[in-house]
Amino acid sequence: GAVVSQHPSWVICKSGTSVKIECRSLDFQATTMFWYRQFPKQSLMLMATSNEGSKATYEQGVEKDKFLINHASLTLSTLTVTSAHPEDSSFYICSARGGRNTEAFFGQGTRLTVV
Amino acid sequence: AQKVTQAQTEISVVEKEDVTLDCVYETRDTTYYLFWYKQPPSGELVFLIRRNSFDEQNEISGRYSWNFQKSTSSFNFTITASQVVDSAVYFCALSEAAEYGNKLVFGAGTILRVKS
Known about the structure:
- The complex is a heterodimer of chains A (115) and B (116).
- Chain A is mainly β.
- Chain A contains no helices and eleven strands.
- In chain A, strands 2, 4, 5, 6, 9, 10 and 11 form a seven-stranded mixed sheet that branches.
- The relative contact order of chain A is 0.34.
- With 116 residues, chain B is mainly beta.
- The interface between A and B is medium-sized, with 26 and 19 residues.
């Protein structure tokens, strides 16, 4: 299957700082990327959908000014957690697809710990 | 609104036992897709199966089998002769529209522990 790579795999940051997570499609052009969040021992919840070249669509309850998503190219989407706080500590995972009715592939996820 | 229910929070079995993970879904769409993923301790999601709403045939892949019943809105997953390596969290998921690469609604997950 296609490869989606996330970087970093894990990150620890201080409260109040910003953290950027990258999601790259390595062998296909990703027109759409999805960002999910998984709190410890919980399920995955969709945060936002990003289409290349346009603004991301956020799910209800997700602060768009706190979780900045940029999908500026067909192979890269970034999620920036701004002014991170301990409650933002979570597992963030992206998925990417090449077009409508094509398979969406998941990255390996990023474990964020805010101290 | 779409919803996926995995009522079993945690299941423990002894190696070689068969185990079935339940999944019940709700959707108003007539066309939809159902998925199962495995999440080992490393966290990455391992794709297991995708099934569209028009295909009710059961599927078998090695020790894994899936039973899709639209009449009861269920998509259950059975592991035959379980192994320790099967220990993981298993998620059932539903695509929100008639595009199988679309965003997913996940169930709460079932933790499977297989003891040797």
